[in-house]
Design brief:
There is one protein chain. This protein has about 350 residues and is an alpha/beta fold. It has eleven helices and twelve strands. Strands 1-2-3-4-7-8-9-10-11-12 form a ten-stranded mixed beta sheet. Strands 5-6 form a two-stranded antiparallel sheet. It binds S-adenosyl-L-homocysteine and iron/sulfur cluster (SF4). S-adenosyl-L-homocysteine binds next to β8 and β10.
Length: about 350
């Protein structure tokens, strides 16, 4: 595997980019179409497998690009069918992605960064801060490696793995465009969800794209005092500002926003808190997704089952739409601790 950081990723190019690269090399434009068909049609990015290309062109592609830069270093499978892939990147760093099958659909959970600069106090991903951003090509490679593993493309994609995607905005959006353009991977943006810790400038920019991607905002508390105990400055934005931004997203993208809420024992799990959360969700036309804390080595604990149920019931009784994430096997061992399936 090449370790040079300046080498581009073949998986990061669009159909048009491939055509342009070919013409810059004095190749006919249809060669770009051929490569695009391999990548977007068949999920193949290894030039050596592109049998309709001349051998010299295959060698040239191999020399000029990471194709691929990443590989699956380890797979942890669980009885319920969930599989976590540890993906080794070209420079020896690694991230995780998870394949989550259910009866009706297959969901991939993807990472956007190595580590995370936000460092939420309950999250293992941010423990050591940010190592580096993933490039769009590396994000697409996660998608392709997952598809290869599953033998098919996913129905849904969630960006809830390692990292704060909106702090790697350009590369994330580049990947989202490739995933959702009819000329490339052609997924519906309505089947793609970006999760953010509530990074307001990023949400505003994302809203201005006016694309129908789903947005999930990790609120974790309906009040600033509690929220600031969980998310350190400078990334802890005020609840009121986040909710105003969520409104903007709903208006421009035309999608209802989900409020994610990691339930932490004795911190944000009381009944009055549930009522406040429900009022906030209702007045901003947002859905609530409760994520019972998944133990990592922090000081936090998961509330007891009856507390989780009472919290969910209260949110519902107060008139907000609520779901609780169900833990799936491989996810309980996930280093990033948040790779879960949405249920309900
Ligand atoms: N950085 C983004 C997306 C990745 S985290 C974000 O924070 O939204 C995806 C979700 O998992 C977030 O809601 C996050 O708060 C939650 N999470 C992180 N660690 C967790 C843990 N140990 N248990 C339960 N949920 C966790
Ligand atoms: Fe980063 Fe999200 Fe973990 Fe917070 S919860 S540290 S934003 S990955």
């Amino acid at each position: 595997m090449k370790s040079d950081r300046k080498i581009p990723f073949l998986a990061g190019l669009s159909r048009r980019g491939l055509r342009e690269w070919m013409s810059s090399e004095g190749q006919p434009g249809y060669r770009g179409e051929q490569v695009a068909d391999w990548i977007f049609g068949r999920g193949v990015i290894q030039p050596e497998q592109m049998t309709n290309l001349p051998a010299s062109l295959r060698l040239l592609l191999q020399a000029r690009f990471h194709a691929p830069g990443s590989s699956v270093a380890e797979v942890s499978s669980s009885e319920d069918g969930t599989e976590k892939l540890l993906i080794e990147l070209f420079d020896g760093e690694s991230v995780e992605m998870v394949l989550i099958p259910s009866e009706e659909r297959l969901t991939f959970c993807l990472s956007t960064q190595v580590g995370c600069p936000v460092q939420c106090r309950f999250c293992a991903s941010g423990r050591d801060g940010l190592v580096r951003n993933l490039s769009a090509g590396e994000i697409i490679e996660e998608f392709l490696l997952g598809s290869e593993r599953a033998g098919r493309r996913p129905d849904n994609l969630v960006f809830m793995g390692i990292g704060e995607g909106l702090l790697n905005y350009n590369e994330l959006v580049k990947a989202l465009v490739l995933l959702s353009s009819p000329d490339e991977f052609g997924m519906s943006p309505r089947r793609i969800t970006v999760s953010t810790s509530g990074y307001v400038p990023g949400i505003l920019k994302f809203a201005e794209l006016e694309r129908e991607f789903n947005l999930a905002i990790s609120l974790h508390a309906p009040d600033d005092a509690t929220r600031s105990k969980l998310i350190p400055p400078p990334f802890c934005y005020p609840v009121a500002e986040i909710m105003a931004t969520a409104d903007r997203y709903r208006e421009l993208a035309g999608r209802m926003v989900t409020l994610e809420y990691t339930l932490l024992k004795g911190v944000n799990d009381s009944i009055p808190t549930a009522r406040k959360l429900a009022a906030l969700a209702r007045s901003h036309h947002a859905k609530v997704n409760l994520i019972p804390y998944n133990a990592t080595d922090t000081e936090f604990q998961r509330p007891e089952r009856r507390v989780i149920e009472a919290f969910a019931r209260t949110v519902e009784e107060e008139g907000a739409h609520v779901t609780v994430r169900v833990e799936r096997g491989a996810e309980s061992t996930a280093a990033c601790g948040q790779l879960r399936r949405q249920e309900g």
